[in-house]
Amino acid sequence: MRTFEFSAPETVDAAVAHGRAGATFLAGGTTLVDLMKLEVLTPQRVVDINALPLRGIRAEGTGIRIGALERMADVAAHPLVRRRFPVVSQALLDGASQQLRNMASIGGNLLQRTRCGYFRDPASACNRRVPGSGCPAIDGSNRMHAILGTSDSCVATHPSDLAVALVALDTWVTLRAADRERVIRLADLYRLPGDTPQALFTLEPGELITDVVIPGLPWAGNSAYLKIRDRQSYEFALASAAVALRTEHGVIKDARIAVGGMGTVPWRLPKVEDALRGKPSGRPAFEAAAERAAEGARTLADNTFKPTLLKRTIVRALLELEG
């Protein structure tokens, strides 16, 4: 680990002032510290934000506001979250071990870096770590890599289970900088790799997530998260699906579908949602809609199974949701 400056401000204004170019915010540290030890990330300054007043889980109408420093375990167990947004609680429980859930923050989870082995190995080329150095995953070991939203520069999957669930729920995040506050859709926080895979987020220098706001839309309570992985114990997704349905008299009136383990960002599937609306709820409609899930997919040598797995994961998640 390289040397760095350290500060622990007690106000949001002081934190964003310290968060200049070359600085990194530290919350739970479950990803940052590991990457600093590997010298994958080498910030000039680490700004510890744990003293900031960015906690709280409270109702806002039928929705909910969650402070960015709330821990994953507390959010997963909160009665409001479990009752109004079960997909969020399930994604958090599936997203990490109990020990990590006790430490990791909601904001940090949404900003975690890819688990691509090439990114985490300083001896390997990686366009996300060293722009222009290449993406060895394209012709190398790529079973876990993305098939949606990829480019010739990067095929790494997005790692967060929580982000998939929140994107499905049309979640918003509040961002604070030194001179302003703005609110954006969580989906708009993430950048496709394109030719600049090192730019993961739309954050401006020093900008800090302060709150996560999940709107209380009618289908949110009827939602679920399904994660498919190589082993049941803590592991990243080969495929996952966050699904929510609103049905009336057996007919699907609205749907939200987002998937993980497949995209370079949390991947919403509006074409699948459109194909579900107006159809009788059940396996035939689910299977027909899921056929649209892998449109535009680009497979690699070791992950040609993923389009089929994606479709089956969506169908299974919808069937389990409908009981």
UniProtKB/TrEMBL annotation:
Residues 1-219 form the FAD-binding PCMH-type domain. It comes from the Bacteria. This is Xanthine dehydrogenase family protein subunit M. Transmembrane segments: none annotated. InterPro entries: CO_DH_flav_C, CO_DH_flav_C_dom_sf, Diverse_Substr_Oxidored, FAD-bd_PCMH, FAD-bd_PCMH-like_sf, FAD-bd_PCMH_sub1, FAD-bd_PCMH_sub2, Mopterin_DH_FAD-bd. The lineage of its organism: Bacteria, Bacillati, Actinomycetota, Actinomycetes, Streptosporangiales. Keywords: Oxidoreductase.
